[in-house]
Specification:
The complex is a heterodimer. Chain A is an alpha/beta fold. Chain A is built from 9 helices and 10 strands. In chain A, the strands form 2 sheets. Chain A has a 7-stranded mixed β-sheet. A 3-stranded antiparallel β-sheet of chain A has the order 3-5-4. Chain A starts with a helix and ends with a strand. By secondary structure, chain B is α/β, with parallel strands linked by helices. Chain B has one domain: Rossmann fold, CATH 3.40.50. Chain B has 6 helices and 9 strands; from the N terminus they run βαβαββββαβαβαβα. A 7-stranded parallel β-sheet of chain B has the order 3-4-2-1-7-8-9, sandwiched between helices. In chain B, α4 runs parallel beside α5. The radius of gyration of chain B is 15 Å and the shape is globular. Classes of the chains: A alpha/beta, B alpha/beta. The interface between A and B is medium-sized, with 30 and 28 residues.
Chain lengths: 280, 201
């Protein structure tokens, strides 16, 4: 075995020890995440913290809790947009909403809500469709910093042209500018949009079902999980959803390799929206 | 920098996978390489082309009918199959997991691009080490240079399109600068080399 191979194996050992350390010390469990992406992000974190090795980073995070929040921002991916993938939101509007209308009250769970973009998109859509008053929105994430941002509902003004275009393409029935005020380079979203929203800390890896819901929207979260963890997360969605409830995934996510695939029917195939089957 | 024939056999002991990165001019360059892969080609081939993030990919459709190997857009957690070309979907990075499944990610763009060549090359270098062959083609970016270096550092083989032939020489030049061990070849030579990799016992 040559030196390079030894070095590679060493980093792999360090990586697993670091994830184990984070889990034991802080109960954040990244051990079942997709390793290729985690490796990449931990290398970036190692450089950012000026550490020579992942072992040094482990030492830092174990002994200095102040390092954790910043490290979490590397470990969790927070890249989203309002109405990201407009065809998804168009399908929710045109195909899912007619079913949701038949319920007197609704619960929507945005799992892995990051800074809230997906939840605000759904809140605006539900308001446009006249469903807002009967709906409770749950936004959950493991990153407290993301939850703070989601609760604030403030986005950089530079992102608004994209959000506005996405909203239009999603079949938006109003102007996005009705929902925010621009101030000091930021767009502050209307507080009334989160009147019926609860943001909280919840892990798809370690936590359990907390509500019975009619729609789960969980987009570009499962791609960061290995297959066992994907099975666990989709199992939670299955157990949370009412009969005939809906599950929306990211544009490149599917239930094709999932242990719970049989519990769902494809509802809008291209937009990756599934419906829980009737028999349970 | 080595060019011309007879071709040096780059130093992969026995290749188990091929990764290709291309940007501006990609379609013409790939049109020389991918259709040259024979039926029953024993290696998986992963390709990142810089495409705009407007959701609908045409690369896989474009090459499907021109190729004798299977061509498709990569799915998350899909196991790699031999004789298959996987294109990164628009707006996602494509990575290889240590267990040699594919995975996708919507992490930040790298060099203003998602998918980025560096992300594929670096993760594939981790997964395949010396059994990887990486090919960097035409482009007006420096994406791929760090990835090519990672491939070389892991003992894999690096092939770079000759800058004189590239529609945009920036990317090949950056690749050669980052990875001086790279074999610099014309497209026909790259195509021949990849074909030969499949013939080795």
């Amino acid at each position: 075995m040559d030196l390079d191979t030894v070095l590679d194996k060493t980093e792999d050992i360090e990586l697993r020890l670091l994830l184990d350390a984070i889990y034991r010390r802080y109960h954040y469990d990244f051990r079942g995440y997709s390793m290729a992406s985690i490796t990449r992000r931990l290398r970036q974190a190692r450089e950012h913290f000026g550490c020579r090795t992942l072992s040094q980073l482990q030492d830092r995070v174990l002994h200095d809790p102040a390092v954790l929040p910043e490290l979490l921002s590397y470990l969790t991916v927070q890249v989203s947009e309002l109405f990201r993938d407009p065809p998804y939101f168009r399908a929710i509007r045109e195909r899912v909403v007619p079913h949701l209308r038949t319920y007197p009250s609704l619960k929507v769970w945005v799992a892995g809500c990051s800074a809230g973009e997906e939840l605000y998109s759904l809140a605006i859509l539900f308001r446009e469709e006249g469903l807002e008053e009967r709906t409770m929105f749950y936004g959950t994430d493991i990153n407290p910093e993301a939850i703070r941002k989601a609760e604030a509902g403030v986005y950089e003004i530079e992102r608004l042209p994209l959000f506005t275009e996405n909203h239009r393409l999603s079949g938006g029935k109003s102007s996005l500018s009705d929902y925010y005020t621009a101030a000091y380079g930021a767009a502050v979203f209307d507080k009334t949009l989160r009147r019926r929203a609860v943001f909280s800390d919840h892990s798809l890896v370690t936590d359990a079902v907390f509500a019975e819901v009619h729609l789960v929207s969980c987009r570009n979260v499962l791609i960061y999980f290995d297959r066992q963890l994907q099975d666990r997360a989709v199992g939670l969605f299955k157990d949370s959803l009412v009969r005939k409830g809906f599950l929306g995934l990211g544009a490149k996510e599917s239930l094709r390799f999932n242990a719970h695939a049989d519990a769902f029917a494809e509802f809008a195939r291209d937009e990756r929206i599934y419906q829980k089957r009737g028999a349970s | 920098m080595t060019t011309g024939s007879p071709l040096p056999v780059p130093h992969a002991p026995r290749a188990e996978a091929v990764v290709i990165g291309a940007s501006a001019g990609a379609v013409d360059a790939l049109s020389v390489i991918l259709p040259a892969l024979p039926e029953g080609y024993p290696l998986p081939v992963m390709v990142v082309v810089h495409v705009p993030p407007n959701k609908k990919s045409i690369m896989a459709e474009l090459f499907r009918n021109k190729c004798r190997v299977d061509v498709r857009e990569a799915d998350d957690k899909e196991p790699l199959a031999p004789g298959t070309v996987y294109f990164a979907p628009p707006d996602y990075h494509l990575l290889v997991e240590p267990d040699r499944r594919l995975s996708l990610s919507s992490e930040e763009p790298v060099h203003y691009s998602r998918p980025a060549i560096d992300v594929l090359f670096e993760s594939a270098a981790d997964a395949f080490g010396p059994a990887l062959v990486a090919v960097l083609l035409t482009g007006a970016s420096s994406d791929g240079a760090c990835g090519l270096k990672a491939v070389c550092d892991a003992g894999g083989a690096a092939l770079v399109q000759h800058p004189d032939e590239a529609a945009m020489p920036t990317m090949p030049r950056a690749g050669i600068a980052a990875c001086p061990k790279a074999s610099v070849m014309y497209l026909e030579q790259i195509a021949g080399h990849l074909r030969d990799l499949g013939r080795r016992p």
